[in-house]
Structures are given as C-alpha cells and as structure tokens.
Amino acid sequence: MILQAGFDGYHIEPAVLILAAKVGLTTSPEPETFTLDNLKAHGVIEHDASLSRQDFAIGDNLHFNEAIFETLANSNPGSDVYNVTSAGQVMQARLADSLAKNPNVTNSEMEFTMRSFESALYLSVMGNGSAGVAPKNFVQKFFREERLPIEEGWKRPSSPIEISSLAQLADLIAQGSNWNATNECATIPLGSGA
C-alpha cells in the first residue's frame, strides 16, 4: 500500500521507497503494518539533525518543531526557491545545532546518507528534481501543515522520481554540506523488542 501511495501521490518509483518500507516494518510488533509512532524509534529511519524534528535524546522526535524547521524555512534568502546549495547548507547547520545540543548525537555515514536523500526527496517531490529546485511555499506547506500544497498550485511531478536521479541530487546536496563523521554506523534493531 505504501509503495502504491508513494507512486500515486508523489510519483516516486517503488524502488525508491521499498527499503524504507521494509526497515519501517522492523519497528512494529505487527508483521505487515507500522505507524508513525513506530517510526520514531531512534536509529532505524529516524535520525538526529532532522529538518523538522528534535533529536531523540533531547526532545520530541515525532512531532513537527517550528523552531527547528526555521533553519530550512529561512534558508536561501532573497529567492523564492530552495536549491541544492541551500539544502546542503541547511544540512550543515542542522548538524552543527545537533552536535552543540545533543551529547549523544548519531552522525555516521548511514545518517548522513539518509539526510542527503531526504533533502533530495523534498526538492524532487515539491519542485523540479532535474533542476534541483523547489518553491519555498510548497516545501513550507508540506512540512508545516503536513499536506500536499495542491491549493497553492503544486502538481504531482510529471516524470517518475527514480533512485538514479535522486542519488545524483543527494550527491550534490552532500557535497555542499561539508559533512564529517563523528561516529560509526549504529546497529539497526531487527524489531521493536530487539
């Protein structure tokens, strides 16, 4: 169901979402479903230095946090779009904030890759993945109101979002983030009781 919804709603190819869906299932005691509450399990899909949530160790890692989102919302001043440069700068700023406030921050290659792909995803879904830009008003409605900005003129991307194009965009964003690891990859729990 999630793969079909991702394709129907956002035009994301199932291959992009399949790993996240499978990993999401490891957070749930139910074999075929998971909830947002399950997904807040730290170190599985949820990670530190989020664009819109607090770090697990210091606060609410489930619900939207406006103060944290302001880093993204206020980026790329003087423009009405976010781009790969601003996305990389936001990743860098969010990580610096997490490192300053969270003594237990997890910042390995795994989390960095997830953060890079998530940024590529919001640019691709809310804007033009080929150009690496997304209108600020679309991105802000999507995060703040957790809805598709259809009333504001957003349309489902005309071309499917594929792993190869997302990876290229994520790489450009990553290059602009000046990232350095502060620890090794964490162990992924195999289930909610593990």
Automatic annotation (TrEMBL):
Matching entries from InterPro entries are given as:
Chloroperoxidase, Chloroperoxidase-like_sf
Q: Which UniProt keywords apply?
A: Heme, Iron, Metal-binding, Oxidoreductase, Peroxidase
Q: Where is the Heme haloperoxidase family profile domain?
A: 1-171
Q: Which cofactor does it need?
A: heme b
Q: Name one GO molecular function term.
A: peroxidase activity
> Pfam families given for it?
Peroxidase_2
**PROSITE patterns the UniProt entry points to:** HEME_HALOPEROXIDASE (PS51405)
What is the similarity comment for this entry? Belongs to the chloroperoxidase family.
Q: Name it.
A: Heme haloperoxidase family profile domain-containing protein
